Amino acid sequence: MTIEIQENTTETPLLPVGLDPRQYAFFFDVDGTLAEICDEPEGVTIPAAVRDNLYALFTASSGALALISGRPVEQLDLLVAPLTLPAAGVHGAEMRDGAGNFHRVTLPPHIVRQVEQTLSAGMSVLPGTLLETKGMAFALHYRQAMLHQQQVLELAERVVTTFPELVLQPGKCVIEIKPRGKDKGVAIYDFMQQVPFAGRLPIFIGDDLTDEKGFEVVNALQGISVKVGEGSSLAHYRVGRVSDVYQWLNALQRHFITHPTSHTSEADS
After folding, report:
1. What contacts 120, CB < 8 A, 6 or more positions away?
2. Residues annotated as catalytic (active site), given as ranges
3. How many whole angstroms separate alpha carbon 265 and alpha carbon 249?
4. Which domains does the chain have, with CATH numbers?
5. Cα-flanking dihedrals φ and ψ of residue 141, to 5°?
6. What is the pLDDT of residues 8-65, one digit of tens each?
7. What is the pLDDT of residue 259?
8. What is the dihedral of CA 265, 96, 163, 180, to 10 degrees?
9. Would you tell me how many other CB atoms lie within 10 Å of the CB of residue 193?
10. Mean pLDDT of the chain
11. How far does CA 122 lie from the centroid of its chain?
């Protein structure tokens, strides 16, 4: 299905801090949402104070908080350590559900080898580009080599034409190749069928083209979709920058401290 991306977001305070976290399921993209984007993927960090606030929200929502990212789950764990959160990695090709069970899509080893060989050879002649392998997916970065954008796209298109099990996912200065049928929208929908997410209103905050499928699903579920930064989007709301997300998480944390009874469980009240 083709998504029509429109300029329909509104500049708004992210969310009221007085919300009842028992009624919501919280989903966060990582790069460009919980972390500032870096030229090198391994340079990304999430500040300790933000990790603390994520834990506070995770606790207040009885665990209904998940990371939704193109990164592998192993990398997500390193970014939020010492936390271990529900997570969808590689656009949902990897998933750790609310019960801690791990699910992973795999590709036949011969396909992985052939794709990696083709991409490595193609990227090696494009200075400044970077190939990131994720097992069943591949990210072709060109942030530091914008002049090669078209060549990178053509290389990726040749691969998915050869291997119909794979599809393209454009992003910010990156073209990703991932298993067909997996995206952030599917990941959020799957989480929403599980405890403790089921029966709640989803909130998804993201910044990239890869997040649009997630916004579409959240909108269909009558949830709250928030885009970080500029650009057309299906999200209903918008904030300007990563620091706005940090401020909202911090405001929530302060609210939980000053109004502890507003987010205790029904059994405790």
Report:
1. 131
2. 29
3. 20
4. 22-105+182-268 (3.40.50.1000), 109-179 (3.30.70.1020)
5. -90, 140
6. 565 555 566 778 899 999 999 999 999 999 878 889 999 999 999 999 999 999 999 9
7. 74
8. -10
9. 9
10. 90
11. 27
